Amino acid sequence: MSEDFFRMFQLAQQGFYCSQILLILGLEARGKDNPDLIRAMTGLAGGLGFSGKTCGALSGGACLLGLYAGKGTPEEVEHDRFRLMVDELVKWFEDEIGSQHGGINCEEILGEDFKHRAVNTKCGNIVASTYDKVKEILAENHIALEGAGE
């Protein structure tokens, strides 16, 4: 089991959701924490506030790209390829995850398990795959995961 996957498992055991886990990992790679941001990420959990809509791993992955390549202060500008990076993530998610699970919505991916709030290994695998894809996209765009955004 990889160190990242083990950390994801720990965070899930602590009650964090897909979108939160992705941002915690991104912040930790930068040597930071931000409980307010992590709390806000709850709004993406369960497919936009547990509505079953867009998977929190996808929306959280887009937010993770934003953490590294988005605009955060009036003086900053977003990375010139930010929107292309998000497009790449969405296309990958649709092709890889959506095609396997019948769509990109949380309710489609989990089916009956969504209604019963059953713990599902699908989520862990999807979060791990999404995290790897985000790291790949960042690397392709010469953005270091570790120590970025000092």
From TrEMBL:
Q: Which domain of life is it from?
A: Bacteria
Q: What is the species listed in this Swiss-Prot or TrEMBL entry?
A: Desulfocucumis palustris
Q: Name the InterPro entries on file.
A: CGCAxxGCC_motif (IPR010181), Multihaem_cyt_sf (IPR036280)
Question: What are the leading ranks of the lineage?
Answer: Bacteria, Bacillati, Bacillota, Clostridia, Eubacteriales
Name this polypeptide is given:
C_GCAxxG_C_C family protein
